[in-house]
Amino acid sequence: MIRCLAVDDEEYALTLLADYIQQVPFLKLVKTTTNPLEALRFCQTDQVDVLFLDIQMPELTGLQLLRLCGSRCKVILTTAYSEYALDGYENDVIDYLLKPISFERFLRSVQKLLPFFISAEATHAPPSLVVPSTLVAEPTYLFLKGDTKNKYVRVNHADIHFVEGLKNYVSVQLTTDRLISYCSLKDLLSQLPCPPFIRIHRSYIVALDKIESIDGHLIYIRNKRLPIGETYRDEVLQIIRARQPHTG
Fold it and tell me: Domains in the chain, start-ordered, CATH in brackets?
């Protein structure tokens, strides 16, 4: 098992990382902390194989912590700021995860750890380091930023009917209510499984299983008419036709 420590000054980010780590069979979560000084002390005791590290933190930045303990363990940076990527790679990090982090992107990142923890003489990975596809399931929910600074709302995929982009925000129509969140439509789509979620217009994402009917260039969900954009029309119709029963 690869022992993991996650460090971030935001609790919601730690909750997400902890959930992702616990879904991967060859990873073991040994600790999460919002305190970089505590993380430094923990790393110095050699109890950690890989450090998931945020960059912008009080007291000690992620890059400072990386320079202090990066030689003791492998490091995967997690940050909302792409401008730090070069600094990360100059310090030999394994990967650079840009928030919001999807599970699929997280899984691709941790796969890069395997060569460092498999004996060079071994022909195959030990059973504890194999990733059984039946065990690594995609999450069925995501966290969306709420209406206050540190508020994040868990949203189940099954409750999402459609999403409308509103410049720097999205309006998420749920089964029982509607949620406005600070996020781009593109970033949200990257965290949703496709299918059932597909983009039908530059301003709309829909859940296939929530579509009530399609009439020409319009999709009807919850008595709301959503346009199918010309750019997306062929792909949308191809997906819809693939779900029609074959005749003859």
Answer: 2-129 (3.40.50.2300), 141-242 (2.40.50.1020)
